[in-house]
Amino acid sequence: MMQNFGFRILVVDDEDDICEIIKFNLESEGFHVDTVNSSEQALKMKLNEYDLFLLDIMMKGMSGFMLADELRKKKQLDKPIIFMTAKNSENDKLTGFTLGADDYITKPFSIRELIARVKAVLSRSGSDLISKGNDKKLKFLGLEMNLDKKRLFVDGVKTNITPNEYRILQLLMKSPGTTFSREQILNYAWRDVTVIDRTVDVHITRLRKKLGKYGKHLISRSGYGYCLEID
Predict the structure, then answer these.
(1) Structure confidence at residue 200 as a pLDDT band (50, 70, 90)
(2) Neighbouring C-beta atoms of residue 99, cutoff 10 Å
(3) Which residues contact 210 (CB under 8 A, 6 or more apart)?
(4) Intrachain domains 8-130 and 137-228 with the same fold
């Protein structure tokens, strides 16, 4: 069973009541929780100290979407993000996952569901806080994955990718030349989270860019899926 003690979570929501409820219940589960009421306040925090971000989307000023974009692109943080929102359209969810979200929970939600999703995302993310044992590695050309530390290196340079991008690449690097369907990738990378097939395509496109010259080896097989192929 995953040990919650030591995990730090930042909740960003402009409703004090929601922040208080989430903080009380997550701390009852052993997490360390800080709350702020705006994206602007969040950006003043020491963000690299957190293991997960719970972000409301519809806030005054900078939205949760904009904050997530800032965390991923400018801050280069690859820690998990869960969006909390009353918006539940397919396009809203796709936008969230495009920005590197790991899960998406629609308001109103039960606290039990939120806690379950937080634990599931942290478990899938493979945080350094629970990494133990000898380093294990996957290699493909100039790509190297450290499976214990959950790190990707491209030609020896550490490259920031989101947890979902990491799991997609891990699946493909485990079996070079094997074509995986979108459904197989979804089941491996997201597991208990319901997302649409297009989400895979969006993540593959972003992953190709991050792999640099090796992105061309991430092949799309029309009607079948994706694979890593040398030539």
Answers:
(1) confident
(2) 23
(3) 154, 159, 160, 161, 165
(4) no
